[in-house]
């Protein structure tokens, strides 16, 4: 499974890339806002354009998702093409993020605007990461429209199920991959039992039909969820910096190191000095 870092903060991207195990970057408007706020707080005077260019250069050779902010097909297509034109020449690694269904503000029927935009961009060989995916059927339609990646938001599925059932939780709390069992039933969102269940169902569906679109498990909240995304068959997990930092932590690894260090025979250690 490939590992992407889910952030727009340059220092986090740089550090994660220095480990040599990161295969890409995903950003979204909320992540960009956090990065810009940090720059402002530090009194850094850099344009967003130059900042994004630095991100692209840092991730050279691996894809970086940049999201559109428009929400009608025409405007998303226009913005996506512009973003691609401005930024792809920097390191040839831009992927455009398009919401699967951008309807939200009024009753206008725009449910298929995301799909239309994905199709138009794919026809021009602009790679698309279809975002805000919450059902296998959304993923299927995005893949059929030509998306390179689909991003099921695993953590937010878990949030939704907990919230709908009055369960109090912290954002980083583990949610069982097999679903939340009450005395009577497993809680679900229309047949989806957890974020990981969603990832697994999309991966199975794509496997079944030999669909090449990659499953990019997003909205990852904790280490165990990353493990379960891998076991569920995700091609990629995009992970926040603070979760990446926890991927190697285990009490017994630490304890083992402590004991090995205590037991060092000086003559052995000196062999290589
Ligand atoms: O990759 C999508 C991600 O940024 C959303 O994460 O934790 O805000 O649901 P979260």
What does it look like?
By secondary structure, this protein is an alpha/beta fold. The protein has one domain (2-272): Alpha-Beta Barrel (TIM Barrel). It is 47% helix and 13% strand. It contains 12 helices and 8 strands. It has helices spanning 10-18, 29-41, 48-58, 73-91, 113-123, 136-144, 154-164, 195-208, 223-231, 241-244, 251-262, 266-270, and strands spanning 2-6, 24-26, 64-67, 94-99, 128-133, 149-152, 214-217, 236-239. An 8-stranded parallel beta barrel has the order 1-2-3-4-5-6-7-8, surrounded by 6 helices. α1 links the parallel β1 (2-6) and β2 (24-26). It is globular, with a radius of gyration of 21 Å. It starts with a strand and ends with a helix. Bound molecules: SN-glycerol-3-phosphate (G3P). Residues 6, 26, 28, 31, 153, 155-156, 218-219, 238 line the site of SN-glycerol-3-phosphate.
Kindly list the characteristics that best describe this protein.
273 residues, alpha/beta, TIM Barrel, 8 strands, globular, binds SN-glycerol-3-phosphate
